[in-house]
Amino acid sequence: MTNTENTLNAEKTQNLVNLTIDGKPVSVPHGTSVIEAAKKIGSKIPHFCWHPGLSVAGVCRLCMVKIEGNPKLQIGCNTQVTEGMKVETKHQEAKEAQKWALEFHLVNHPLDCPTCDQAGECKLQDYYMQVGRYDSQVNEEKVLKPKALDVGTELILDTERCILCSRCVRFEDQVSKTSSLGIFNRGDHSQIGLIPGRRIEHNYSYNLVDICPVGAFTARDFRFKCRVWFLEKTKTTCPGCSTGCSVSVFGNKMEREYYRLKPEVDHEVNGHWMCDYGRKMYKHCNASARQSVPQKNGTPVDWNRITNELVQELTKARNKKVALVLTPQYTNEEYALVLSSIKQILGTTPTVFIWRPETENPTEFDGVLFRGDHNANTKGLERALSQANIQAEIIRGNIEPLKNANPDLTIVLGPEIEMAYGNIENTLQSLSKLSNVVYFGVTLSDTTKQFSLTVPTKVFVEKNGTYLNYNSMPRKLIANAPVFSQIMGLDDMFAAALQRIEQ
Amino acid sequence: MGYFSKELTKIIEGYIGRFETKRSSILPILHAIQDEKDWIRDEDVLALESEFNLPAVDVREVLTFYTMYRTSPVKPYRIEICNSISCWLRGADKTIETLENHMARWKQKTGNEPPFEVHAVACLGMCGHAPVAFVNKDRHLNVTPELALKLVEQYTSKNLAKVESKQETQNVEGGH
């Protein structure tokens, strides 16, 4: 009786529950599950169906734990902590149960790991190494099910590999709210499926690949391209829209090639998810899509000489009209540096224009993550300009206002992700008709060759810096080694230019 | 005008309001559809979604889970023979085997699919008269192999839906 009262008092006063897991004391809020509490102290309980971003299903029966005083093992995901609970995650009984649960998961699994894209980050493989029976007793014939089904623009479904954890079904019900997936038939003929003739075609379909603990859902974009153990991840921020989700970019360092993006857990911004549009943000980073060397009137210029060229252009324009065209896709640090160093070199403040997409609806929001403003740093640019006390005019598609300013030198910080600008070719064409243009950009095109100076810039995954998202919340970018080893960032170039001037 | 008949629509609406959650009504609704239309088509599932707002995925999950919902066209005569313990002890498996052989011979002789199908089902609750069988909705007692063959002949040759029926002839729908 006193014990119960004590428990109630403890909950009332601080709403924390004290328990021990594997002998270690841990305090967690009331209502936490054993699996979450164990995660807090670094005890990893094997699990398939439980996902922190979804409801509890309790179907995989893998997260068995031994709780003192309980005659039977309990599943960690659906057991809430209680005061004084003593949990053992590595108890022999629990291990034995996990071993057999895993054996049953593998009864109808095709074991096609050599051709499966999930191999290397597959939970079946991971847990088999951890708790598996190395001498399998399964010699029954496997139930055959449909493979390589075309279920959506981004997805391929292999129902044989599926272990029926129902994460994808719950994702479709609870996150994307499309309810397109279900588990049909029963027993060992159960399979994940859609209503005949329907497909998964929402903007969050790629998350199904992430949450699938095995290789049942694979990404069309990543299938058969690279084994995952060759990939290294860089935690950074998605440049796709003003939400600024925390993501990891996966690249092969040996090939200097990027392959995919995956979301990182960030409860303040994106939770566990990211959108399909954001998943494309690795494409413009790869060498085949980029210009590698600076060009002066169409002829390549050595990287060593680029600072000279830049300084020449800028010093020539002293006491003349200079226009600076900025796009909201650079980091806060780059804006600050470019604005201050140009001012310092010229001695005057240039006329600043903001170049935004021709057609956009920046206030649009799909209710989950994706925003209509497809530029990562709109807020950052606004802040940089207001800090520098500069009033900027916005141009979209039509560059009349810039032409009317009649500048002797125009410096353009072109968009990194041109996809967000729709067709920028027309705008580039009209820019190239201006007399003296220095263009910083990423993508290779014939038009960019017509500028008096075209300088390739680093992409988001090669920069250190910050973006401000729609909510003015700063998010970091972490630099990876650049795809072109000699490339200079805006920071290097302008710092060197300043140094040159001072000499 | 809805997709389902007036009577069926009324039944479905009744079930939908009856339970705490809408999903709970799926089971009886599917039974009602099967009772009226003999078997359940993909279109029926889609119509439940479009007209009654029952997610098609939920309906399909239930439909495919239970084996007693029919999802392919049925033949005119459906013979269900109990093979639970009492009927099995009294030779239900012999009856089933005889009918299956009869089906095979029918197909061989005429080249056509026989107009009946045989299913072994669980207890029909008439163990005192084992083995028990249903032909469509008529109950038949002590169905020995001989009686089973006679029943098939009676039903098929006269082309009657029901031999000893007091009810009106059931509407038999052809294949799709």
How many beta-strand segments of chain B? Answer: 4
Report the total helices of chain A.
12
Strand content range of chain A: 15-25%
Number of domains of chain A: 3
The main β sheet of chain B shows up as:
4 strands, mixed
Helix content of chain A: 10-25%
Instruction: Give the name of the CATH superfamily of the largest domain in chain B.
Output: Glutaredoxin
Shape call of chain A: elongated
Per CATH, what is the topology of the largest domain in chain B? Answer: Glutaredoxin
Tally of individual domains of chain B: 2
Keywords:
heterodimer, A: 503 residues, alpha/beta, Ubiquitin-like (UB roll), Alpha-Beta Plaits, Rossmann fold, five-stranded mixed beta sheet, 12 helices, B: 176 residues, alpha+beta, Glutaredoxin, 2 domains
Explain this structure.
The complex is a heterodimer of chains A (503) and B (176). Chain A is α/β, with parallel strands linked by helices. Chain A has 3 domains: 2-105, Ubiquitin-like (UB roll); 109-224, Alpha-Beta Plaits (2-Layer Sandwich); 291-502, Rossmann fold (3-Layer(aba) Sandwich). Chain A has 12 helices and 23 strands. Chain A is elongated, with a radius of gyration of 28 Å. Chain B has 176 residues and is an alpha+beta fold. Chain B folds into 2 domains: 7-65; 77-157, Glutaredoxin (3-Layer(aba) Sandwich). Chain B is built from 7 helices and 4 strands; from the N terminus they run ααααβααβββα. The interface between A and B is small, with 12 and 11 residues.
What is the compact description of this entry?
Chain A has 503 residues and is of the alpha/beta class.
Note the topology.
The complex is a heterodimer of chains A (503) and B (176).
Chain A (H helix, E strand, L loop, with lengths): L1 H13 L1 E6 L2 E6 L4 H7 L23 E4 L6 E2 L10 E3 L3 H14 L17 H9 L17 E2 L4 E3 L9 H8 L7 E3 L6 E3 L12 H6 L5 E3 L12 E6 L8 E7 L4 E7 L31 E2 L2 E2 L5 H11 L5 E5 L5 H15 L4 E6 L21 H10 L5 E4 L3 H6 L3 E5 L11 H8 L4 E5 L11 E4 L8 E4 L5 E4 L12 H13 L1
Parallel strand pairs in A: 1-5, 16-17, 16-19, 17-18, 19-20, 20-21
Antiparallel strand pairs in A: 1-2, 3-4, 3-5, 6-7, 7-10, 8-9, 11-12, 12-13, 14-15, 14-21, 22-23
Chain B lengths: L5 H13 L7 H12 L4 H11 L3 H10 L11 E6 L2 H5 L2 H19 L5 E6 L11 E3 L2 E3 L4 H13 L19
Parallel strand pairs in B: 1-2
Antiparallel strand pairs in B: 1-3, 3-4
Helix pairs in contact in B: 1-2, 6-7
